[in-house]
């Protein structure tokens, strides 16, 4: 299997947004990219995803609370 994502770091996504477009088009490339990251960068992504989900849950909880009092 040929890996077209030769430079795998979070910084490379910022410097070359076409990599991000490729990952969005083909999620298997995203998994390959994730596996190519260092452990520290994988942890950064997991923490960012966790905080995003927590923030979204808080947002949904507040929206649901506003709908019931109206």
Structural class: mainly alpha
Strand content: under 5%
Distance between the termini: 56 Å
Low-confidence stretches: none
What does this structure look like?
80% of the residues lie in helices and 0% in strands. The chain contains 4 helices and no strands. The protein is elongated, with a radius of gyration of 17 Å. The relative contact order is 0.10. It has 70 residues and is mainly α.
Q: What secondary-structure arrangement, pairings included, does this model have?
A:
Blueprint: H1 10-15, H2 17-25, H3 27-36, H4 39-69
Supply database-style keywords:
70 residues; mainly alpha
At a glance:
The chain is mainly α.
